[in-house]
Amino acid sequence: MAVEVSIVFLYIDYQKQATASILIISTSLTIKPNVAMKHAFYIIGLLLCMAGGSARAQDPANANEVVEKYLTAIGGRTKLKAIQDITTTATADMQGRTIEMEAKYKMPNKFRQASYVMGNEMGGTVYDGNRLSRNMRGQEQVKEGKEAFQEYLQNHPFPELYYDSLGIEKKLLGKETVDGKEAYKVEYSADGRTWQDYFDASTGLKVKRTATIDTPRGKSDVAVTYDDYKEVNGVKLPFKRSQKSGQFEMTMETQSVKINKGIDDKQFRIK
User: Fold this and answer.
1) For residues 215 and 184, which has the higher predicted lDDT (pLDDT)?
2) The whole model's pTM is what?
3) What is the largest CA-CA distance in the chain?
């Protein structure tokens, strides 16, 4: 005697923050005595995979959703806005020489970065909230106002917190493959400049940035990749960054991160 079985699958997708996506699949199976039971279980399992795959196939509707998923993945807006200062140290190998780097951020608008070789300072950047001074091998370049703040954001660990208030436009350009994994590509534009960030489609983490910058030798394409995310005080930061521009390549590995330890404003004075 054949037996008809009705099966209803309820799949709930909690990937969205405020709402859950519910997918209901209903079907009927007629199971005959001469059909092995394992075949029936195989069919049921296949339907379950179809239900899960249908729900996971949903892509973000726009760039805002991609960026919001990223901010949530690294700790959420509340934790990020609670950060008052960050101090990081990192090392990099360049042409056989070890470079030590220290960066200090005091929210919302102060920044200091310096590079050292064998204990000697080779150059650095200071932003006091209005003026930005970059010094390299005794040559100083100064920027002010909005131009200075935008460059400061390029060094900020969480610039996405400020993009909307600055009127920086963003749009989702689809998916691309980064290091063998699918990533959503978001392009930003402001004052004639554009740059692109790539976010892992699965984890939401930022994995790459590309841009074209002006150099003394003309325009140059720059690519920065982010890897080895680690949690510090409830916030995830990439502990490995690789930068490539033309023939120049450098990989920086973070050695330490200190959050909310206090930094004196005197360290951000421009001489």
Assistant:
1) 184
2) 0.76
3) 92
